[in-house]
Amino acid sequence: MELAQVRLLVSDFPVCYHFYAEVLGLKPQSGATEGPYEKFSPTVGSAGIALQDRAMMAQILGELGDSASGHRSLVVLRVDDLDSYCEAITSRGAVLVHGPDFMTDRMRVAHLKDPEGNLVELQEWLLLQT
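Above: the chain's sequence. Below: its structure in token form.
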């Protein structure tokens, strides 16, 4: 078994597409800016984040039509230089809700929310630094 992706159900697909592609700088697979589906990949690694239109999934399953409330997901992205990355994404419109700060003595983190309220954690692993 292989994890293919984490998929987020979103109500405003174009706004979320812009956030993951233009603000966070992840590479879209096909360029489907209006949806109903798009996979995004970081520059390294094989894991991906995908967006799925919530209304489309509601039609398929006969549920999930309502917007999610509360923190129901946490997308985690590892970056090499947390301060530089945070500076870059805030200049493109991201709003940090926490950090950058130490989470442990081995990891620094920052948190933000995507346009649907999904939490995104940015991690800098201090153990990987020499």
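The domain at 5-125 is CATH 3.10.180.10 (2,3-Dihydroxybiphenyl 1,2-Dioxygenase; domain 1).
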